[in-house]
Amino acid sequence: MWGTLQTVDYAAEVFQQGVSYYEIPNDTEAAVAKRLERQQYLYQGERIFNVLLGEQALYTNFGGPEVMKGQFDRLLAVMRLFRLSLGIVPRSAPTLIWPGSAFSMFDGRIVLVETYSAELSVSQPQEIELYTKAFALLKQSGVYGTAIRELISTAIQHYDQIPND
User: Fold this and answer.
1) Which end of the chain is more exposed for a tag (fewer CB within 10 A), N or C?
2) Helix 65-78 vs helix 146-160: angle between axes, to the nearest 10 degrees?
3) C-beta separation of 54 from 90 below 8 A
4) Consecutive H or E run containing 54
């Protein structure tokens, strides 16, 4: 789930898992506050955000059913924003390229690639072009609008069947 779209509870779970995995000091509260601060860009300025998630993001359980359903409410709300194009690649959709690692592109200037051990900054024009091409191919497998609402509705039904801890 892209960080800028995360709810407080979802982001807190993500950061708590990072604290545990990397065995680092617990700065979850500050990290969540910073992540939420970035959400202001969805509502102001001229930036356009093109976000593509794999359907698996709806089923990767961060924090339990209530946290996930809260996250789905957030997705349904922000997908109406005119600065945001939100797509989901259904799990059974034919793809034209392997999805690879999560990455974020910034105005054709830099691509950030997330791994378990590092965040890679890609800035060579020919490499950025490869990520641009990969995103375009992945986007062709994505669905938008009503189809996303249906995928989220199905995921909510899934979490309704799971008892809260």
Assistant:
1) C
2) 170
3) no
4) strand 49-54
